[in-house]
Amino acid sequence: HSVWEQRIARARIDIEMTRLLCLKAADMMDKAGNKAAQLEIAMIKVQAPTMALQILDDAIQAHGGAGVSGDFALAHDWAAVRTLRFADGPDEVHARAIARAEFRKYEAPR
User: From CA 100, how far away is CA 79, in angstroms rounded?
Assistant: First the structure.
């Protein structure tokens, strides 16, 4: 059971971190506009579906063969969430934008 306790704890932590990132982005959007929150929005577009897929994958694993059967909606939910990873551009596009923003922080002034 300790493996499942670890997975549930990790899921709870990941959900909270993602929720806080969403709240930070929303606050930035309210106070400074969407452009100011562009980096946080990109991070959410990568993090939220990735986190949801991991949690769904763990739930499918916990249910064994039933997790991919019609008895539970888990496989359907996994497929639906998976589309979010490319619906607004693939993760790699958002990750590139995030990395470039990070590099810009440390560029020498011209």
Answer: 30
